[in-house]
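Progress report, Aim 2. The chain analyzed during this reporting quarter is listed below.
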Amino acid sequence: MNETSKQPITILLAAPRGFCAGVDRAIQIVELALERYGKPIYVRHEIVHNRYVVEGLERRGAIFVDELDQVPDGGRVIFSAHGVAKAVPEAARARGLSFMDATCPLVTKVHREAENHHAKGRHVVMLGHAGHPEAVGTMGQLPSGEITLLQSADEAAAFTPPVDAQIAYITQTTLSVDDTAAAVEVLSERFPDLAGPRKGDICYATTNRQAAVKAIAGRCDSLFVIGAPNSSNSKRLVEVADGAGCRYSRLIQRAGDIVWADLVGQNCIGISAGASAPEVLVEEVLDAFRERFTVTIEQVTVANEDMEFKLPAELRAPEKV
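Predicted structure tokens for the chain:
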């Protein structure tokens, strides 16, 4: 097919999209640790939820494990950006393992909130997704029975609190802004003295990416979110697109996941990327569209991000001679 016979199509490119500061920091920690200490470097769980990123680090010498018992004695291990329960670094110390924590600082902030509420005698409710590493790590900051996971407004309505306990809430950082607001409203109505974060726990990157998808979804015939199937923030973007009026919203990992036959006769496509998806995958998708269509790109920007997080001191400091 020559260029003049290709169907014209407009792509609305959501911004912000892709890597956030916490993801960028976590990946840098693994890369710099490999440079400084050599391979192998063990990483407990996927450093971020993206196979392209994980496979790239594996090629450089990172070994991803599910649990610490897979790390040999004397090994060096990094904890993922999602955070870990207190028992994990305790177990690493008990074995004499060298470890670094790549937990996103905004997740660490939620951990400290949980501890502070607990210290004040409150029962903590966490709004989050059961089994997600961030939820598991955050729940693991407190003793069993002192924190309750709720996944929806309906669960918030049905929740039975401990007798005479003041309730405080925290949230996973990658939730739907709208769904979380609905659950918090239920809790606020049920518990007038409900304690919570001053500005909310959903991180700036999640909020901005959802706002960008909302800004384009109503104009799109289809919208693609580039991200992993186990990425909470990526899955939320698809839900947001559905809720904002896009009739065909799909989560894809790579350009090869696009079902081109579904796009026949469409004129406007939306593209975003979850916070752990690198921009190279966005470019791959755009190139795939350019092969098949005459593409006009319109970037729709709802916020400008300049957040940066410091690296661990041992990776910032010059190596001792």
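The chain has three domains: 3-20+204-301, 21-104, 106-190. The chain has eleven helices and twelve strands. These observations will guide the mutagenesis work planned for the next reporting period.
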